[in-house]
Amino acid sequence: MVSGSITNELESPLEAQRVWNAFVKDGHNLLPKQVPEVFSSITFIQGDGGVGSIKQINFTDANPDFSFVKELVEEVDEEKFVYRYSHVEGGMLGKKLVSAKYEFKYTPKPEGGCVCSSVFHYETLPGVPHDESKVQEIKEKTT
Predict the structure, then answer these.
(1) Which of 37, 50, 91, 93 has its CA 20 to 30 A from that of 63?
(2) Domains of the chain by start residue, with CATH
């Protein structure tokens, strides 16, 4: 079993509030419209997006590894622009991973725009070898 994390940071010319609204508050509507080749639908199966909500993300055939993932919302901090969730079903859970947790933070910059930070924490199933090329592939897909 291997535990690890992948960290990314990206600067945006958009204000933190605007990025937060687009991806956290309205991402379930925005992503299937803006990236229909990847996301077929995103729906809340429990709750309305707040802590404790469960969201199901359905992928198109463009994702050959899995067709859906269910996410449990663990933190929504609208003042600090922090959003945390974990996968509870689907995705790579049970195939290669025991756990998958994500944290996104949008930090306003004094001169405008923001810094978008993400951290992906994972734990592999016993016997699954650590594959650095797969880690790099995941990192590239999330930037």
Answers:
(1) 50
(2) 3-141 (3.30.530.20)
